[in-house]
Design a protein that fits this description.
Elements lengths: L1 H15 L11 H5 L5 E6 L7 H10 L2 E4 L5 H4 L9 H12 L3 E8 L6 H4 L5 H18 L6 E6 L29 H13 L4 E6 L7 H16 L5 E4 L2 E2 L6 H12 L4 E9 L1 E2 L8 H19 L4 E6 L8 H5 L4 E2 L12 H12 L4
Parallel strand pairs: 1-2, 1-10, 2-3, 3-4, 4-5, 5-6, 6-8, 7-8, 8-10
Antiparallel strand pairs: 9-11
Helix pairs in contact: 7-8, 10-11, 11-13
The chain binds ligand G3I.
């Protein structure tokens, strides 16, 4: 009978629209719409062929960042050759799904190829090598990558507040050792020449709160802004351990950086939990983790200068935390190993929904 077919079509349509058992819940990316906040995640290209991975990625996020494949070791494997194949895969995925792309990272002391670290280059040669690297990589993605982590983790952990000894600063360095952050400045200027439209970020670990490391970064950024060095933003990684986040201090830190006129991004958020040998966390820790995601995101959403919140991966199936901690920690992300949402996901989404009207 015709009317039966009509009822069937109507009911199916309503179910699809989410009128089945209550209104269909919004994805993170839908919740972020209207708040002006970008919601992103780090991505590994090998996983894009996994349906659950790619569909979750496209549904939940409006920004992504290659986790590893734009690092020197991958993108610049020989002195005279570049390999953009994996980076291009991710950038194409983003274009197909209307997502923005952050670039990570042009200058770092890790994941550099042997030809570079063992090459015994002079400072002059190194300066030429890094200038070519920055201009080639940024140039390749000109107009496709909207923001770059130009320099990553340049400040030291042990001698807090001081620049880290690296191949770029003083081993042997690009000829600017003893001149403070001059080598960093030079890298920002090269990146700006390669793509004047790209937003250029300094990215750092363990500097999200007010502490001696963030004090040193603040001094550098203030100096750069005063002298017209092209820096547009600061990335706070936000790898949170021990279920502790000093949100008041994070907020104060954001306030002083945004007052300099730079944007602030959360670039690598995860909240590591202790896990049993099967990788399972304690249920009560999942709730505390959710509170941290909610509170940190809410702090970011309350500052107009904060423009992106990014997690370091999205499913516990693929996260650096497991191998890094010899499997004693994990479960750090908003989705579990089976792509189910966790309380952390709800915390993040609550914060985004509440901020819609900011
Ligand atoms: O590419 C090789 C592959 O050929 C080889 O078969 C495999 C065997 O282990 O290793 C692969 O390289 C790994 C690489 O990731 C790519 O997956 C390295 O071993 C592994 O050490 C590397 O780890 C990455 C780490 O940075 C070092 O680059 C993590 O995935 C990545 O999450 C982590 O990300 C960093 C940020 O860039 C900067 N901030 C801290 C953050 C966490 O450490």
């Amino acid at each position: 009978m015709k009317w039966r077919a009509l009822v069937f079509v109507l009911v199916t349509a309503l179910l699809c629209l989410g009128f089945g058992d209550g209104v269909r819940e919004q994805s993170l990316r839908e919740a972020a719409q209207g708040s002006g906040m970008l919601i992103g995640t780090a991505v590994r290209p090998a996983q894009l062929s996994e349906m659950a991975y790619s569909s979750t990625l496209a549904r939940e996020f409006n920004m992504l960042e290659p986790e590893d494949v734009l690092k020197w070791e991958v993108v610049h494997p020989e002195r005279e050759s570049f390999d953009f194949s994996q980076g291009d895969q991710i950038v194409d995925f983003a274009a197909r799904h209307g997502m923005k792309v952050r670039g990570h990272t042009l200058v770092w002391h890790q994941q550099n190829p042997k030809w570079l670290t063992d090459g015994r280059y002079t400072s002059g040669e190194l300066a030429q090598i890094i200038e070519k690297h920055i201009k080639t990589v940024v140039g390749h993605y000109r107009g496709k990558i909207f923001a770059w982590d130009v320099v990553n983790e340049a400040f030291d952990e042990l001698h807090v507040g001081e620049l880290r000894s690296t191949i770029w600063l003083n081993q042997p360095g690009i000829g600017l050792a003893g001149n403070g952050s001059s080598y960093i400045e030079r890298c920002f200027r090269w990146a700006h020449e390669a793509d004047p439209q790209a937003l250029l970020f300094y990215n750092e670990a363990g500097a999200e709160v007010v502490n001696p490391k963030s004090d040193a970064i603040y001094a550098m950024v203030r100096d750069f802004r005063q002298r017209g060095v092209p820096i547009d933003g600061v990335g706070f990684q936000m790898h949170i351990e021990k279920l502790r986040a000093d949100v008041a201090s994070i907020s104060a830190n954001i306030k002083r950086f945004t007052a300099l006129g730079v944007q602030v991004h959360i670039t690598e958020m995860d909240v590591a939990l202790p896990v049993d040998p099967n990788g399972n966390p304690r249920p009560e820790d999942l709730q505390m983790q959710a509170d941290i995601y909610r509170e940190v995101a809410a702090a970011f959403l309350s500052h107009p200068g904060c423009t992106a919140i990014q997690t370091w991966g999205f499913t516990d199936k693929y996260s650096w935390i497991g191998s890094h901690s010899k499997k004693t920690q994990g479960a750090a992300l908003p989705f579990d190993r089976y792509y189910g949402t966790k309380p952390a996901y709800d915390g993040l989404r609550d914060a985004l929904e509440r901020a819609r009207s900011r």
